[in-house]
Amino acid sequence: MKNKNSKIGRVMRERVGYTQCHLATLLDKKFSVSSIRNYENGDRDAPVSYLLALSKLYRCTLNDLIDEEKTFYMFSNIDMLNYSYVNHISNIEKPVVKVAYSYDRNIHTDKYTYLYYLLTADDVTLNLPSGTRLLVQMKGKEMIDVNYKERMYLISADKQNHPDFNYEKPFQIDSNSKTTETKQFFTRARLVKDLSNKTVMYYDGEIIRHMNYRNFKSMIDGVVYKYVFDENIDEFTLMQPKDGFILQ
Asked: Rounded CA gap, 10 and 18, in Å?
């Protein structure tokens, strides 16, 4: 009788382009090629040690090893390279393990609300081109913090604390208030070092602004958790809807 998870480990192996023989070598021959074949065909139950070894190799969860629905969202037959450019030294190398990736990996929908934004124009503030997709983790019960590492934030600025200079569009009246004029936009921000007062430096188009840490923190609505750029966004063919969404 075949195991109900008859493709266990097979989908992930095919995503990264490994043969069963190569996989056995990567696992230090602890599992034979025939054993791997039996596990993937469902002829034998895969031991826990095998599942844990695959999870460590592919850097994935145990659910990823049996979940076939994520194949559409994964980079499959694309070569992967590690890249760094530090102190004018370029380092490009092929990794030992090609890591598959899913857009919904490492997000916590049980704790936070996420919104998905598509940039429809080049954004000078974020220094990102039109077509970039932003996955934003919205503020929950706790306020979102700012540290010395620059991140992208979604903020709601009011005119009193954020002077209205060089804007093409005026502030809009907040629906929750009859007196406060606010507008919401994305910015890059970080803490400034070596200042007596805790200060945030952030971008507003080509303008660099500074604000008291607490005041800026109170304006944050969300933080960009992931972003992806698709150069040929206008050339995508719409696919059949899934769960109410049109796939691109």
From this structure: 10
